[in-house]
Specification:
35% strand; 198 residues; Hypothetical upf0131 protein ytfp; alpha+beta; two-stranded antiparallel ribbon
Length: 198
Amino acid sequence: MTDPSVLASLKPGEDLWVFGYGSLMWNPGFEFEEQCDAVLNGFHRSFCLYSHHYRGTFDNPGLVLGLDQGGDCRGSAFRIAAHMVRDVVAYLNERELVSYDYLPRYLDITITQGGTEAQVRSYTFIADTVSEQYAGGLNVDQKASLIMNAQGIAGLNRDYLINTVRHMDDTGFGDPDLLALLDQVERLTGMIDMGGGI
């Protein structure tokens, strides 16, 4: 499966930039020519999509990361060699569009290479705000409560949050909103333990 819109917008022999804001940053799963810091304006990283399979169930949904509207997001940009573009786009679409919670987009980002900034177009995925699985209106307490109690075929939802924060800290991309969410989950975990265990 490929995205004809992004492929049609590239000139013959042109490389493709891909913007990653979550697991793609430390586990891209594809070959690339270079990786650098990047900022996407107009969207922010958020646990804004319900998970009914990998990190939750329909009866007890969890939450996963998406790019939600507003603000900005610091992430990683990957430059894909022209001869690999079609294969990488197909791989990314299969990886990210399985549950149809994301929309593929070709957006401007600002990359930093050797201290110099430049604007390039990049392929990325934003949250589908009209999907039934969009959870953009939840506050920190509501998100923490869902994450605390959810589990899917990929494991506990809170482990997904913990691992995400750990990887982002390790790669120098600390996110205050995610840290605040993790703090709330840890506080709830402590209160549950004191009240009789989980």
